[in-house]
Design brief:
7% strand, globular, mainly alpha
């Protein structure tokens, strides 16, 4: 409901997709994450007013129990190839949940932060999960 909550919404989707237990109920008996529960690094009111920075986004992910492998993009071809590799790894994996993984490779999600201005959109910083990939349109 809040434009500045794109980071919180993106992280909420990821935590729920990974089946991470928030350790408390959301509504009724449901133990799912909601944006309002992500307040371990900054107060929700501050995020509503200012949005969330990349370091605070990483802080929120880590304090909610997930391993984060963070990368910053640079304008070079090597970096683009690395990004494509990360996309392929995220979208080509078998679906499961982290509780079933134990010694296996952990389920991954790919979340990005980018400038909306680069796409001619209003606003600037934005967070989004990567949900798929079409090699032919890359």
């Amino acid at each position: 409901d809040e434009p500045a909550f794109c980071g919180l919404s993106t992280l909420t989707m990821a935590l729920n997709a990974l089946n991470v237990d928030p350790g408390r109920t959301w509504k009724g008996p449901w133990r799912w994450y909601h944006e309002s529960m992500l307040d371990c690094c900054d107060p929700i009111a501050k995020v509503k007013e200012e949005g969330i920075t990349w370091p605070k986004f990483l802080c929120l992910a880590r304090c909610n129990g997930v391993h984060v492998d963070a990368h910053r993009a640079r304008d070079d071809d090597r970096n683009l190839q690395l990004f494509r590799r990360f996309v392929h790894e995220a979208v080509r994996q078998d679906i499961g949940c982290h509780q079933e993984e134990e010694d296996e490779v952990a389920l991954k999600v790919l979340l990005v932060s980018y400038s909306r201005r680069a796409f001619g959109q209003t606003g600037d910083g934005h967070y989004s999960p990567i949900g798929g990939y079409h090699k032919g349109k890359d």
